[in-house]
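Summary of Year 1 activities. Much of the first year was spent building the evaluation harness for sequence design. The harness presents a backbone, in tokenized form, and records the residue chosen at every position. We chose the following record to illustrate the format because it has been used consistently in internal testing since the harness was completed.
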């Protein structure tokens, strides 16, 4: 079997991307309409999967729509899952050493996407009125539970 190490081995996008919507609420609202903004900030250098980003978006959006209404805020997802995760599957049966070649050609097959996040990176932002700030903080607290790390 020939080992492929050129550009042909990187042509992968795992299905359709899980997260397609990056804005929620009243998208066209100006700065004057929603003067207060609440950010969710990463405190660790980590990788966040697109599934976790989507789960956090759904949780925070649902919470905001339930308590303040869909035209009383604007939420934006600030991270994009561009990084492709890969896995080098290994056999774990008897005689596996005869069937596979260890770490030779161990580039792996793509199995998901995620965002690489550094310390201080903004993950989510919610713009709203002063009276709705505590609802936005609560929505981002619910979204925080969907992410690994702090």
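For this record, the design step produced the sequence shown next.
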């Amino acid at each position: 079997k020939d080992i492929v190490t050129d550009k042909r081995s990187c042509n992968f996008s795992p299905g359709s991307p899980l997260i397609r919507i990056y804005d929620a609420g009243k998208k066209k609202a100006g700065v004057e309409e929603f003067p207060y903004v609440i950010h969710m900030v990463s405190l660790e250098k980590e990788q966040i999967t697109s599934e976790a980003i989507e789960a956090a978006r759904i949780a925070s959006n649902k919470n905001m729509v339930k308590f303040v209404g869909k035209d009383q805020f604007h939420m934006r997802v600030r991270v994009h899952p561009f990084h492709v995760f890969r896995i080098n599957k290994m056999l774990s049966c008897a005689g596996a050493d005869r069937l596979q070649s260890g770490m030779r050609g161990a580039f792996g097959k793509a199995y998901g996407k995620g965002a690489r996040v550094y310390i201080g990176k903004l993950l989510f932002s919610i713009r709203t009125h002063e009276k709705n700030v505590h609802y936005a903080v609560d929505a981002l607290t619910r979204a925080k539970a969907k992410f690994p790390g702090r």
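The first helix runs from residue 50 to 68. Quantitative recovery figures across the full test set are reported in Table 2.
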